[in-house]
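Go through this fold for my students:
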Amino acid sequence: MFLMKKSLLVMVLLIVVMTTGCKNILVDMERLAKQQQLNVEPNPLELHGNNVGFTLSAQLPVKMMKKDTKYTIEVAYASGDASKFVSDQTASTKVGSLEFDGNKYAGNNDKPKISKKLNFAYEDKHEQGYLILKGIVSRKEKSKSFGPIQIISAGNANIGVATTSRLVKSPIDGVSNANGVSPFAYAQVKRTEPKNTTTSYKLNFKQGSGRVNTATGDNGQTLNLAKEAFKSMASTFATVENIPEFTAKGVSSHSPEGRAAINMELPKQRSSSLSKEMQAMMKAFEYGKRVSKFNFEFDNKTLEATWPEFKELIQGSSLNEDQKNEVVGIVDGNDGFVEKEKKLQALSYYNTLKDEIYPKMRYAQLSIANPSTTKSKTDMENILDKIAKGAMDAGSLTENEYLYMVTQTPNFMTRVKWLEKAVTKYNTWRINNNLGAAYLDVALLTKDNAHLEKAMAALSNALSKKEAGEIYYNQGMLYLMKGDQAKAEEAFQKAMNAGAGSNPTLTGLLNGIKGYYAIKKATARDDGKYKEAYELLGNAANTVPNYFNKGLAYLLEASDYEQAKAGFNAAIKLNEKDATSYYALAVVAARQGNANDLTLNLKKAISIKSELKAKALKDVEFFKFKTNAAFRDAIK
């Protein structure tokens, strides 16, 4: 009996010793755990997309971890004022945990260390807050916990979430078309520049005569062709005043026969006769008001000057080679014009010269540069004015001419006026799309949203004819102007799927959209989305949001603050009243520790948009400067 009692006493004592030993180990672990070194990167935390991600590194004292022990760090985020820690954290947001296994570190003289990426979904309540932890030490079935306590990272408390990513500008944010440059997608049109063509009119004359005879040669037919040409040219211009000047150059000649004195005058008489015929035609078709400005330039060939052409005609005649050589020999000889003429008359085949060659040399020829049928900009402006007034039919211009002229005027109301006329004749996707874009331009410029419904109708009509990137892009911009983000994103996605085709302007606009959504899809500094964004935005349209978002992508990636500043400054150059760009420059200055630039840019931002004062006061980007006199001065 005594032995049984003695054994029972030993067992109780053993259990007490073991329990006490376990308890002492846990107490010791808790004491050492409170000496842990923690580091949070980045600090302050940053919002990327809807995600707040960070890396928590924990380093424990040497020999804290024993065999069969564990240490768990449960991490949470507490919303509220970081300077007013409260112990009741039941409403905090759970983030994740780190766990140390004693079996891995037991007997090791190195400090146990673990780094782990953690994240939580952002809510507006998280902007102000701090990270907390609960520590749990355990050995086998026994455990002991402490906390919650505020996480101190490298001597600094975590003080909230930087929401700089929410500065991203939508494609319509800060856009202006006051300079006449549209941020909307107009269908592309290829312009064929006017090119003149040259037509030659040749009249033949009888021997020794300078008068025009319609019965001579093909004169009658030539004159009729000239009349039709002048009539056709005149009909292509809206008014007499718009008939362009054109160049008229000619040549006249005579055959090598008759008196030299007469031959000296014949070419001049013949060119004069031809000029009068042409001027009469111009007057008939209302060119008369400008006849004085026409310059008829003739090369009147006489005597020796006629021989080169004469020799060319000889080579194409029915003469045999010996005869041709004999004639050329006479012409190339040293005799004067009259002596050469007499030698030719003495040839046995002289009649062949008179019948085949001489008639072809009695002429006057005029080469006229016909104005292109492609209308000039001035012509089309005049026609559009008449169409707008109802004085001409809308079909007086082609679809391409309407599309081209719309791109040539910075006046968006004028664009609407022209395109409203164009659509009555050309109910195509391009005309309807461009009419929708013009309505959007007017709405943006005047702030009159009544034009948005007109734009929607025109764009819907365009889509009924063709699904094109330009149309979907404009619909996306329209939905942004109406505040419907979901429909805007849907339309933009369709625009990106449709692509820009061969429209370089649309390519730049779509790159801006792609860059914008790349920023919104980012979940971390280094997930590659910001790099994708600034590369796209580097080839985007020159707009305030595109420049700003390019700078923002560099800022959020934290890779190149100089590029970030370049982007923001480019946006300011387009719109010096863009408060957000100045605010973003202040953020860059804060990250670089430049108090002077921070103050300068923050003051400017708040002076333009007073609501930014409240944002700056709680923005953790400026936490280090909260007690700085210059910062306080900037926000007062």
